[in-house]
Amino acid sequence: MAEKNIYIGLMSGTSADGIDAAAVEIEGGYEHPRVRLAAYESFSYPAEVREQIFALFNPENATSDVLSRMNFLLGKLYGEAANRLIDMHGIDRGRIAAIGSHGQTVYHEPDGDVPNTLQIGEGSVIARLTGLTCVSDFRTADIAAGGNGAPLVPFTEYALFAHKEKSVILQNIGGIANSTVLFAGCRAEEVFAFDNGPGNMIIDGLMDHFFGKEMDSGGAVAATGKVCHALLDSLMEEPYYKKAPPKTTGRELFGKAYLKGILDKAEGLCPEDVIATVTALTARVIGESYRDFVLPRGKVDELIVGGGGSYNPTLMGFLKEYMSAYGVEVYTQEDKGQSSDAKEAVAFALLAYYTMAGLPSNLPTATGARYPAVLGKISL
Fold first, then answer.
1. pTM of the model
2. How far apart, in whole angstroms, are the C-alpha atoms of residue 20 and residue 251?
3. 358 exposed, middle or buried (CB, 10 Å; 0-12, 13-18, 19+)?
4. Rounded CA gap, 313 and 4, in Å?
5. Residue 192's beta-bridge partner residues?
6. Does 73 score more than 90 pLDDT?
7. Which of 166, 192, 329, 363 has its CA 20 to 30 A from that of 301?
8. What does the alpha-carbon distance between residue 280 and residue 259 come to, in Å, rounded to a whole number?
9. Range 153-336 classified under CATH 3.20.20.370
10. Is 228 in contact with 269 (CB distance < 8 Å)?
């Protein structure tokens, strides 16, 4: 009988641009498992589905009938994505232990009077379409344990990247930017992680506003603009940046209202200068969060960037400039032989691996939870 050591990870992030699907082979136990990326594909959402998802980010549009329909529709799309990945790469279904699906976050309020979060993409639909066990809805167990429900990826980064002699920051720049700090020789309970602030979210939103484009591909627009330091300094006054970790954020803070505030402050500036300024903002937020929250605990040697932001040379240039002031070398996941695109899908495949074993996979030091928790709901 084939060994069931392949896990499929499905990820749809804050930018809601599509479904990342990764197949990974996992072996070697649970403390520091060996993970090999066997296959990866990214499937864009149909344009009308992406529009429907963005409509849900406005709570006034997220009525119960619409949420219910979208929950099942996205479950169907995730199941189809998993099937396409398996078929395109000829993966033996007999070796697949489970699917780990993050789902699409449509609301996240860990600091509310009743802490809550909502990721849609029904796991039972995924299980039925694929014929495979599906683990989904990972964030709710951490919220129930008193945590922020995020960030969850630091647990997997510790399992894969912890080093006895080198201190490293794993820096993700997706819609939101988040840091996982792995000091040399640290134990799991010593991992330090938090959301810095906006990653690509503000850049993407303003690119859509000014140019009708989903993103600043290759940082080309930002490269033609000039940073307005007065605007940048004003944007850095956002209180979230000074809030001590553990902390998490998302579209609830850095959504449409925040974009409108930037546009009001940027009146008179050309679009290229605004894009350059908010690109510098992402880099400065990361640099100052290192200065304020990481450096007092100890210096790090490397910052390794993953996520879509790593493909933006203008953003990476700003980030290298900020981090050089602290003597920190900046690399991409690709520089280290990994995949920026697949990183988070791989993470949720690995989280499913722990859930299926009945093992906790949150880090209370990162999420603020009162205790470690087994994450996710299993659909057979």
1. 0.82
2. 20
3. exposed
4. 40
5. 181
6. yes
7. 363
8. 16
9. no
10. yes
Confidence (pLDDT) at 1: 55
> Is residue 126 exposed (0-12), middle (13-18) or buried (19+ Cβ within 10 Å)?
buried
Q: Is 155 a residue whose pLDDT tops 70?
A: yes
Give the residue carrying structure tokens 């930018």. 15
Q: What integer pLDDT is reported at residue 2 of this predicted model?
A: 65
For the chain, the residue count is: 380
Q: What is the spatial distance between Cα 165 and Cα 157, in angstroms, rounded to a whole number? A: 16
| Least confident interval from 10-14, 207-211, 277-281 | 10-14
pLDDT of residue 248: 87
What contacts 24+ positions apart, CB below 8 Å, involve 27-33?
30/354, 30/357, 30/359, 31/159, 32/159, 32/160, 32/162, 33/159, 33/160, 33/350, 33/353
Q: What are phi and psi of 349, to 5 degrees?
A: -65, -40
Q: Which of 348, 350, 374 is nearest to 360 (CA)?
A: 374
- CA–CA separation, 305 and 261 (whole Å): 28
Rounded mean pLDDT of 32-51?
94
Q: What is the CA radius of gyration of the chain?
A: 20
Phi, psi of 269 (to 5 degrees): -85, 150
